[in-house]
Amino acid sequence: MYVANKSNKIKGYVYSKYLKPYQPGKTTVVKTPSTSGSGSSTNTPTKPTEPTVISKSDLESLIAASPDLDPTGQLLSLTSEDYQTYASVFDKNFNVGDYAHKGVFNNDQASIYVESQQLVPYVQKAIDKWNSALGTTAFTLGTRENHSMVLGFGDGQIAGWDGVFYGSGIAVDYTSFHDHTYPYGRLPVSNEPITITLTSDDDSTGVGDGVAAHAASGYHYDADVHYVTTTITGVPADLLETYWVGVITHELGHSLGLDHTPYFQDIMAAQSGTENGQSQENMKYDWTDYKDANGTQGGTMTAKLTQRDIDRAKLTKLLGYW
Fold first, then answer.
1. Mean pLDDT lowest among 17-26, 67-76, 225-234
2. pTM of the model
3. How far is CA 133 from the centre of its chain?
4. CA angle 65, 69, 71 (to 5 degrees)
5. Which residues of 240-258 are buried (b: 16+ CB within 10 A; e: fewer)?
6. For residue range 181-200, what is the model confidence (pLDDT) as tens digits?
7. Which of 191, 195, 198, 206 is nearest to 237 (CA)?
8. How far is Cα 289 from Cα 274, in angstroms, rounded to an integer?
9. Which terminus of the chain has fewer Cβ atoms in its 10 Å neighbourhood, N or C?
């Protein structure tokens, strides 16, 4: 833009980005010289550029290039307008949704009041797993007077769940938690590591069928299903503790907006996308068995988060679900 000062002694071209609004007593409008030679025109202000939303076809290309159910790369660095515009597309393609009740997460954080002191160590370890993996404090322990989510014991014997997320809290089945033969059968009293083989449809060893969560009637809960054939090794007491930490970590995942995957290694694994004839709320495709090969480690058995678990939780934050 060509400009001059009031006395016309200082003049020249200047990049308009460096100009600041000024209200003089008398304003002199200097026309911008025409570059076409056909005359001159006055300088007119331009409107701010509207945010550009990614096209649906470009978004679908990014999704197709990403690992199954794992939002990676550019999918985690789009604009807020992109996530708002295509929330339903993300929900369906990555098995996620807005499952926590309003007020559970405040400033991206949920405060959990644990009703039983017996559960506190398990909850703390589950909290630490998510907070560490996400690089932020998504969960804290609250008090009876100050909390946004409740976690305590419940009765899952009839419905068949070990843990249930119900929108504003989590319940852990009291009977199974206090049954030291669950889910692996009767274990030796020993401080030496043991190896347990988990096989599909085999209760003869006393090994329980384990858990995988599903959604029904607005709830997410853990129901008895079978495994891929695999093994797990550890000190008996540690194996039981890790299992229940895994169950709680899984349920916290639901509060973050994560539904199930067909990958046994994921903390959010489920053997089927449909339970009792009802499909989970958001599902890229249906499945009736795990996709993993035999020998796969993970899930609630090890209470370990996979990169897919973590990436999906990062996505749900960008979608505003926590």
1. 17-26
2. 0.79
3. 11
4. 60
5. bbbbbbbbbbbbbbbbbbb
6. 999 999 999 899 999 988 65
7. 191
8. 11
9. N
Q: Which two tokens stand for residue 277?
A: 């004839």
271 contacts: CB under 8 Å, gap ≥ 6: 212, 225, 226, 227, 262, 288, 289, 290
Sign of CA dihedral 133, 103, 81, 94: positive
The number of residues making up the chain comes to: 322
Question: What single string gives the DSSP state of each residue in 213-232?
Answer: EEEETTEEEEE--PPPSEEE
3-state secondary structure at position 123: helix
- For position 2, what pLDDT does the model report? 44
Sign of the torsion formed by the C-alpha atoms of 110, 111, 112 and 117: positive
Share of the chain above pLDDT 70, in %: 75
Phi, psi (deg, nearest 5) at residue 29: -90, 120
290/269 Cα distance (integer angstroms):
8
DSSP-based helix, strand, coil % in the chain, nearest 5: 25, 20, 55
Across the range 245-252, mean pLDDT stands at 98
The string of pLDDT tens digits covering residues 155-186 is 999 998 999 999 999 999 999 999 999 999 99
